[in-house]
Amino acid sequence: MLEELLPQIRACQLCAAHLPHGPRPVLRAAASARLMIVGQAPGTKVHASGIPWDDQSGKRLRSWLGLTPDEFYNEEHVAIIPTAFCYPGTGPSGDLPPRPECFQHWHPQLLPFLPNIQLTLLIGTYAQRAFLGKNAKATLTQTVEAWQDYLPRYLPLPHPSPRNIAWFKRHPWFEREVVPTLQEIVQATLPG
What we know:
Layout: H1 2-10, E1 35-38, H2 44-49, H3 56-65, H4 69-72, E2 78-80, E3 90-91, E4 94-95, H5 100-110, E5 119-123, H6 125-132, H7 140-145, H8 147-150, E6 154-157, H9 165-170, H10 173-189
Parallel strand pairs: 1-2, 1-5, 5-6
Antiparallel strand pairs: 3-4
Protein name: Uracil-DNA glycosylase family protein
InterPro entries: HI_0220.2, Uracil-DNA_glycosylase-like, Uracil-DNA_glycosylase-like_sf
Pfam family, one: UDG
């Protein structure tokens, strides 16, 4: 049962030896959730607060979705399940990739307990490759451009990080075309 699995995940030490800041699994889920948000892994602010998307990326993501913080953090409706649950540390060009052990070990156990998910948002390359496999395109941009091909089950998105401002400027079609449709789909997915 999900009520038994979530405490196990939150107490996980699987990658402890590889996490410079120690394990702190961050996720939210309930069996009733209809929307699932899959990003890469928590960043430093989320590691400190224990609240997923508790940073500038989260503000932009909530804006894209057209959700208030209360709606976004209502785990009865929205499951927030990163590819890996702990902050992986920093590398030469930003955060390190999510630890693969987490996805391989926990996702197969967790996802069957989320039977009501109607839409999964795949945020960033790691989430897209993990869930789409060979159906992901060669680049994040190509995958996001083909977003309609993955509906109704998945909708790939770029990461809303402030570090991606250049991507948003180079691809204005995303906020002009995808975001309004994304908001409509999210509103149709969540209970009124």
